[in-house]
TrEMBL record:
It catalyses: ATP + protein L-histidine = ADP + protein N-phospho-L-histidine. PANTHER family: SENSOR HISTIDINE KINASE ENVZ, SENSOR PROTEIN CREC. It is an enzyme of class 2 (transferase). It is found in: Cell inner membrane. This is histidine kinase. Its main location: membrane. It is a multi-pass membrane protein. Residues 193-247 form the HAMP domain. The chain crosses the membrane at residues 27-47, 173-192. It comes from the Bacteria. Its EC number is 2.7.13.3.
């Protein structure tokens, strides 16, 4: 009897592309962003409204102050003689920063900058000082507020600084606006958290129920909000009923295991003792063993979901699973695994997973030409996961049946003619891998055959 071939090859590149994942936005951040946009938009709209309502009164007030200054300056110039006028101009320049100079036809005049406030000031000054009034922002290259006025037939410029008349509210309104915006955003965060907390608690409780932990999934039934209270009460009643059903199922499974396997054991013993025909005895014993295996598969699939995960050596587990298949002449292995791969798993369940996949590949992954089942086993560590890959070189599976392979009691075309299959093997594998926090992906290899990719949690460094 030939022994199976065991070879260690470099790890083959993955032939399947990783599924794309769409980054989602949590409910808290979505609510917070929407509330923030609403509040910021409202604050901005109110700010613009207040500025528009303030512009015209502010321009009128500024224009009145400037007009009063021009009228006072005009009166002072009109009622002083030439000698006193020089001293007056000097005093006004030094004390009030107001310069009065003659206006010449050759002066280079530039208008004031465009703006709502400047437009209001120009219109108001022209209305108050007369149609001959000129308002400029620069004369002969000098910046400032320039107002041209006349005294009899003489033309003068009054130059001053617009900032002395511009009386904004200062930075007080900006400080209050910033404070209001900060308080609004803090309130939005608090409201978003208040809205999100019951859903977050419900999500956590649902995840615990999914893992089979019914005791840690109880929600608060005394919350003030009636809708949330009704949801919590309904969820708690549902989990209590599920816990009761789970307990009854465990008791029922124990009874089924005892009630069916005990008479099967007696029947097998009586068959071996009472049937004289060797071939008939072997066939009957095989049928009884098949019934016992089918019962085992049903019990494996219906096993409760609680599982304690520990650091398990994937290399040793695979080696242990291969020992039972070494004597089979119709199987050849190619193994390529990184050294010292540790995963978070239940050791017995991990062996069950690998054994099921190996049996599935040995049964349905044989080559049509050689009749051999060439199985490749490879594993490598990723960032926080370990990827275990088992591949056969059989006919593969039709593309429309790939997603159905893990459906309970579904049997592919190759398995339909076999009387030994129950249609639960891959279903048990997927369910057990999911209970250990992993993921099973089935696909056809590009060069033929079925690939089973298992992603398991990688054990932390230093685990034994």
């Amino acid at each position: 009897m030939a022994t199976p071939k065991l070879a260690f090859l470099p790890y083959p590149p993955e032939e399947e592309s990783k599924p794309s994942r769409t980054a989602g936005l949590s409910l808290f951040w979505r609510t917070f962003v929407l509330l923030s946009l609403l509040l910021v938009g409202s604050v901005f709209a109110w700010t613009q409204t207040l500025r528009e309502l303030e512009s015209e009164p502010r321009a009128i007030q500024t224009a009145r102050q400037i007009a009063s200054l021009v009228n006072l300056s005009r009166a002072a110039v009109m009622y002083t003689d030439a000698i006193t006028r020089v001293s007056l101009f000097k005093t006004m320049r030094d004390e009030e920063h107001v310069v009065i100079v003659p206006r010449e036809p050759k002066d280079l005049i530039e208008p004031m900058e465009n703006g709502e406030l400047n437009r209001f000031i120009s219109e108001e000054l022209t209305q108050r000082l007369g149609p001959g009034t000129m308002v400029a922002g620069r004369v002969n290259g000098k910046d400032g507020l320039w107002i041209g006025f006349t005294i009899d037939k003489d033309l003068f410029w009054l130059q001053t600084n617009l900032e002395r008349f511009d009386t904004p509210a200062g930075k007080t309104w900006l400080i209050w606006l910033t404070t209001a915006a900060a308080l609004s955003l803090a309130g939005a965060a608090w409201i978003a958290r208040l809205i999100n907390r019951p859903l977050k608690d419900l999500s956590f409780a649902a995840s615990r129920v999914r893992e089979g932990d019914f005791e840690a999934s109880e929600l608060d039934e005394s919350v003030a909000t009636s809708e949330i209270r009704e949801v919590n009460v309904g969820f708690n009643r549902m989990t209590q009923k599920l816990a009761m059903i789970e307990q009854e199922r465990a008791v029922m499974l124990a009874g089924i295991s005892h009630d069916l396997r005990t008479p099967l054991a007696r029947l097998r013993l009586e068959t071996e003792l009472s049937v004289t025909d060797i071939h008939a005895r072997e066939n009957m014993a095989s049928d009884i063993a098949q019934l016992d295996a089918i019962i085992g598969k049903f019990l494996d699939y219906a096993r409760p979901g609680n599982m304690e995960l520990t650091a398990v050596s994937l290399n040793k587990t695979v080696e242990t699973c291969l020992l039972s298949l070494k004597k089979r002449p119709d199987i050849a292995f190619k193994v390529a695994m990184e050294d010292r791969l540790l995963v978070m798993a239940d050791e017995v369940e991990l062996q069950r997973i690998i054994t099921n996949l190996l049996e599935n590949a040995a049964r349905y992954g044989k080559s049509m030409d050689t009749g051999m089942a060439d199985i490749e086993i490879s594993a490598r560590g990723l960032d926080k996961q370990v990827l275990l890959r088992l591949r056969d070189h059989g006919q593969g599976v039709a593309a429309d049946q790939l997603k159905q392979l893990t459906t309970p009691f579904f049997r592919g075309e190759a398995a339909r003619t076999s009387a030994n299959g129950t249609g639960l093997g891959l279903s048990i594998v997927e369910k057990t891998v999911s209970r250990m926090g992993g993921k099973l992906e089935l696909s056809n290899a590009n060069s033929g055959g079925l690939c089973a990719n298992i992603r398991l949690q990688r054990a932390p460094a230093g685990s034994t």
